[in-house]
Amino acid sequence: MPEGAMKAWIESSHLSGANAAYIEELYESYLDNSQSVSAEWREIFQQLPKVEGADVEYRHSEIRDEFKKLAQEPHKTLVVSGGSDAKQVKVLQLINAFRFRGHQNANLDPLGLWQREKVRDLQLSHHDLSENDFDREFNIGSLAVGQESMKLGDLYKALKTTYCGSIGAEYMHITSTDEKRWIQQRLESVQSQAILSVEEKEEIFKGLVAADGLEKYLGAKFPGAKRFSLEGGDSLIPMLKQLITRAGTQGAKEVVIGMAHRGRLNVLVNVMGKNPSKLFDEFGGKHDEILSSGDVKYHQGYSSDFVTPGGNVHLALAFNPSHLEIVNPVVMGSVRARLDRRDCNAGDLVLPITIHGDSAIAGQGVVQETFNMSQARAFKVGGTIRIVVNNQVGFTTSSPQDTRSGEYCTEIAKMVSAPILHVNGDDPEAVILATQIALDYRNEFKRDVVIDLVCYRRHGHNEADEPSATQPLMYKKVKKHPTPRQIYAEKLNAEGTLAKARTDELMAYYRKLLDEGQCTVEQWRPMTEHSVDWSPYLGHDWDDAYDHEISLDKLKELANKVSSIPADHHVHNRVRKIYDDRAKMASGEKLLDWGMAENLAYASIVDAGERVRITGQDSGRGTFFHRHAVLHNQDDASRYLPLQNIREGQGPFDVHDSVLSEVSVLAFEYGYTTAEPSGLTIWEAQFGDFANCAQVVFDQFISSGEQKWGRLCGLTMLLPHGYEGQGPEHSSARLERFLQLCADHNMQICVPSTPAQVFNMLRRQVVRPMRRPLVVMSPKSLLRHPLAVSSLDDLATGVFHNVIGEIDDIEPSNVERVVFCSGKVYYELLEQRRKNEQTNIAIIRIEQLYPFPEQELQKQLAKYQHVKQFVWCQEEPQNQGAWYCSQHHFRAALPKGGYLTYAGRAASAAPAVGYMSVHVKEQQALVHDALKVE
Questions:
Q1: Strand 302-308, strand 524-525: pairing
Q2: Is the C or the N end of the chain the one with fewer CB within 10 Å?
Q3: 803-930 sits in which CATH class?
Q4: What one-character-per-residue DSSP string does 554-595 give?
């Protein structure tokens, strides 16, 4: 802009004191989005250089100089109450500096060990201001204190109280101006000071008494026993009780909590209302005889009801192994199931709370995954309250320099613009204020929010550990440091809120409750109707009778529904061809392929009023282009789902392409199915070997959750598996690993080989009342194999065959060798045998490898009692696949005198070869070996 034009524009602008807030609004709008202001303002703001330490800030002196220059123009001046003052803009920048960086000088560490440099941006001198300006009055812009101007001295004090007290608020990284303004209003309007009644303060004190009292009681009664004490982080108890009470008052009906073992026993007794006498029994070695193996007491979950002014709130503390943060997606999945059951899309009725350790939240990748999925359509739950019990030392001997690279352990939360409220754990009133703000923010904006409870750990990692060996300076401080209860009691006594006699009385009363083994939570109530009814699914075995048949007429009706596309919905030509073929399958002109049978299974389930939920990285389309449950209009990208249009009043059908994660998504779906037994829930791996990334979920939840915790789960997992010459990483779903996890009839491992089999297998998972996990080695090339087809009549039987016998017309008395196999290799054996015209070999498919169907296999072998040669044929290397885990089952079913040999690849460190020519050679060899009669 020419200098004359610029001067003319400046002269026509309105840079007056009354418009100081307007200037600030313009500047902040520019910071959020440079295109949101006019070109003239943008040109001025662009000339201002950045200040160190803030990506979206600018050096205050430059801002001041520029506006001072404008103020010196003869036609216009910056006018403030009391006269001309170019320092106005610097005052606004001072306010902004405290909002950005006040947390870096906040009083957060109860032990006073943090060595934090003073932030220059928070000093008056950095803004060319001084105490000489304290009596001058300035416009304070958007500072939410209920007035337009303040004396600088009062303003500076208010800023330090608000942003550098016991709460350090990080929120200026949030991209939404509305959310930032909301937080500013909540903090600045009360200068980060909680406004509490005497009754509320007494309730806080009761929480601290309970937290401290239980730990001391356990320490005296069971010295040396592991309890992973909460001592030092005592404020967690009043915090959780405040969260639940406030959530219930605002309409929540359920709260689901996930946490690791630190402080878990305290939460169980003092929040959940577990009777302390039961906990003492567990310390004494008594246990619930119902559970097979059980688990240690600091992994156990619990459920109860908690009375609030808004009604009873159902509480659920999720069972959790020691694998740190893995419980977070489990909690989110459980919450999503509860929300779906309540038909609540916003998340108002169920609140998730996850409690983290400082090292774990920074170190465990699943935390990033759950933050990433928090707003995704398939996984959103209306925001999660994430509490960090920050004991500053990690789980054993770690220091922050070893456990993270950022200033705070909570840096990861910024990836989703979550506000972070750091709070001093020794100031329980500040903790309560941070808790109130966090919950209200979550309910207002439906987003995650983090409370970093900065505290300490009074003992070692466990009570037998000696922390002074590795943290000598910290533990010198800890030994002399009073407990949060002592600090707060002195404060209440001093201000006259509670007399010492009253605080002593409350402590004595809590000790009495423990001595008598009574519930310590006044708000505890016995559970009512909040939980889902699991009784129809209890006490069932694999072979229990169930209504499995489906009529042929119904199948034809459903087939027409799933193959129909509205005329105005223009799909891709390849998809149109698939649906044209499905229409022919519905009419009986073609046999059904895999995709049609699978979609028919889902249709039959939703038609019966049950729900279907499928997630995976390509689940809508199917990784191998076979499902196409979601049809994308090529004209406008709109979506049409035939399975959502089966009939009026049908069960819900939800299929979601998931975030690119395995462990968090699988854990989410596990959590979903432990909270919702009805319907069909499926997680599908893009390739079966991708399940490796989720192995902790298989190991610690899916395979053992029922035995450890009595938690039933009907989750179905589709893991594409099959050797197609695509290299070692896209061949094997590691069948051997799942078989190694099998015991006590804990889950099902199936390898279906026909469309009818997958149809009836999926239906069985819903229709049969038993709820146990189903792991499926699902196919790739079989999705379109010309022999892998079925008729509607095959589907209508409703029976999944655990064993499928010989299908060709082979005289049993002529058979000299019987080949057992599972999966794709069956068709290669079948085709080669037919090509060889061998009539002395029978092929039997084992479609369910666990629980092993010994009786059904023996039934098929009844006609081959004369046979001596039996072979197990597999595509996988000898040390993988089913051979090592299942050969004892095969041998147990053989007739007397029969012997079993192996046909397959040699043992290998890799799952498969990487060269197609080698793959083909190996495949031909194993088929030949299996069919060679000796």
A1: antiparallel
A2: C
A3: alpha beta
A4: HHHHHHHHHT---TT----HHHHHHHHHHHHHHHTSS-B-HH
